[in-house]
Write a structure and sequence with these properties.
By secondary structure, the protein is an alpha+beta fold. It has one domain: Ubiquitin-like (UB roll) (Roll), CATH 3.10.20.30. The protein is about 20% helix and about 25% strand. A 5-stranded mixed sheet has the order 2-1-5-3-4, covered by helices on one side. β3 and β4 form a beta hairpin. This is Sulfur carrier protein CysO.
């Protein structure tokens, strides 16, 4: 199934300059694996060395934060979206 992925412009150097692109996968878990396989530089920005989502990173599957989902083995459906957001602070 085709999934539309968007990443913040701060991470476009990790995705070959792209901020929005399609990805093919059957499940959400497969989509995340495919995203990191296609763009391995994203791994260190999104996940800790232990494989946990970094605290300043939000990844949304449609309207749901991955942090709220107990299981990522969700079958993908036409029109699904994956959006990566990074919290940025300043003063």
């Amino acid at each position: 199934m085709r999934l539309e992925v968007s990443v913040p412009s701060l991470l476009r150097d990790c995705t070959g300059g792209q901020v929005s692109f399609p990805l093919e996968a059957a499940t959400l878990r497969e989509a995340l694996g495919a995203l990191l396989a296609a763009y391995p530089l994203l791994r260190r920005h999104l996940f800790t060395e232990q494989g946990q989502l970094r605290k300043h990173v939000l990844i949304y599957y449609n309207e749901d934060s991955l942090a709220w989902l107990d299981d990522w083995n969700i079958p993908l459906q036409e029109g699904d979206r994956l959006q990566v957001l990074q919290a940025v602070s300043g003063g």
